[in-house]
Amino acid sequence: MIIEGQSEQQPICLSGIKREEFEHLLGAMYHEDLASSSPMSKDTLLAIFRLADMWLLDEIRAATLKKLHPHFSSPMPLVQIEKLRFATRYNIPLWETEACMSLATRPAPLLPSETVELGPALTFSLMSARESIMRRRMRIAFGPESRWKCSDRSRGCSRQIITSFRSALMAETDQEHCLLVVEEETIFLDLTASFQAAWNESMARLRFKNRSKYPGLCDICIKSFSDGNGLGASSWLDYQSDVEIVRREMKP
User: Fold this and answer.
1) CB of 190 within 8 A of CB of 178?
2) Which top-rank group of organisms is this from (predicted)?
3) CA-CA distance, 88 to 208, in Å (whole number)?
4) Quick one: DSSP state of residue 109?
5) Helices (DSSP H) in the chain: which residue ranges?
6) What DSSP element (H or E) covers 189?
7) Is pLDDT of 38 > 90?
8) Which of 16, 69, 77, 109 has the smallest set of CB atoms within 10 Å of its CB?
9) For the chain, how far is it from start to end, CA to CA, in angstroms?
10) Are 78 and 117 contacting, i.e. CB atoms less than 8 angstroms apart?
């Protein structure tokens, strides 16, 4: 009986694994490539991660995932779609939630090309999440408890926040743009614009179009709102509730 690995004529056969992939893994294991501050290509890191995941090399898997993060940090939809597919395949809940939030909360619906990349199952889950999030945000925009808390009544911060929020929420799309209507003016944004970008643009345009009615936020609210990404904006919007919706809808 001939046993693999006892001679060069009978090497161990690693089916489905390319030589360069295995060499990348060896570099991570024995040469501490992952500990180096030098940048590593996305393809190299993906190869290392795949083998580390396959062979349950948990420390290398975690280190590789940390190195991969910058390659998946762009808000561009195609990057987020790839991030979602990667996270779903390898069971990375945090990345899955982040990618889903990016795609499920932007004003523009999923494009046909994006649904092709996602596949039917992920597309259906994301569409369900988008619908649930939209209903919840409509209740915020037009419900009785939608007032933004501000101690400086003179500038009308609450009015500016809710008006710009409603404008972003009611955005429409054509084949090329996300369309905002602010003070009867149509604003053209990229189809991939995030909700926060639309909200912030609406806020800026309100101030530009009618400074007497919308003079801008007070200093405290400026810090709290922070272009729609601040802690105050997240708290008022109850961002965590949207996260819970996404997690519920994405469950298999």
Assistant:
1) yes
2) Eukaryota
3) 43
4) P
5) 19-30, 42-54, 58-68, 77-90, 93-105, 112-118, 120-142, 157-169, 195-209, 219-225, 231-237, 239-249
6) strand 185-190
7) no
8) 16
9) 46
10) yes
Task: Render pLDDT for 65-112 as a digit per residue (tens, 0 to 9).
Answer: 999 999 999 988 999 999 999 999 999 999 999 999 999 999 999 999
What six digits make up the tokens of 148?
Answer: 């933004």
Contact between 178 and 170 under an 8 Å Cβ cutoff? The reply is no
| Residues in contact with 145: Cβ distance below 8 Å, sequence separation at least 6, in sequence order | none
Per-residue tokens: 83: 């991030």
Name the residue with tokens 């990618």. 99
Sign for the CA dihedral angle at 159, 164, 169, 173 comes to positive
- What are the tokens at 217? 């936020």
Residue 193 burial (CB count, 10 A): 21
Residue 209 phi, psi (nearest 5): -80, -35
Cβ-contact 207, 199 below 8 angstroms: no
The CA distances from residue 199 to 107, 157, 162, in Å, are 10, 14, 10
Nearest-angstrom CA–CA distance, 215 and 213: 6
Q: How many CB atoms lie within 10 A of CB 21?
A: 18
Burial readout 200-238 (b: 16 or more C-beta within 10 A, e: otherwise): bbbbbbbbeeeeeebebbbeebeebbeebebebbbebbe
- Token digits for 207? 């101030």
Q: Measured between alpha carbons, how far is 85 from 241 in angstroms, rounded to an integer?
A: 23
